[in-house]
User: What shape does this take?
Amino acid sequence: MQTLTQTDSDTQLSRLEEQAVELSRELNRVQTQIADILYRENHAQQSSRSAPQIYLPPLRPYDRLRAKWNLGTGLDIPESPETVATPASGSPSAYLRLFGLLADGSPWECRIPFEEMALRGSITLGRDPESADIAIPDEGISRTHVQIALSEQGLEVTDMNSTNGTAINGQPFSPYQPAMLLLSGDTLTMGDVILQAEINKNTL
Assistant: This one.
């Protein structure tokens, strides 16, 4: 009969402990790989759900059809007289220009001086001229649809609990989310109306 000495027992115990450590490391490695795969799959699904159906790169001024359909160079939009308190000295030195097509195909645009926006604190856009600072004649737009304000970060857009929703570059956001930044070249969607943003960069 083979008799195990204390030394043999210690050696076997040491080997078992080493094997247990190796198995634990292998288990952690497999768990990490599984977690990484699940994260990538979940991230890919979220990206595919939130990806805009139409994304417009920065456009040259007056590209009317591109603002709606993302086509090539479009037709010139005649400048609209609609603006918010443009200084008497002439065209404002710094402003936000929104332009595009309404749901019925008619062109629309406005220029919002930053000076006026800073003075008022914010500018609202909507269907009702009595409720909003700038009226957009489209039935799919709420009476007061969005608010645009100047901040240290830039131009911030807030949805005013609109019925048909608001999106920037096709990415929708709700009134319960933080304000979204609007940059030059971005698209601002309100209901079925897609407007292109053009920012005069003299001061912003």
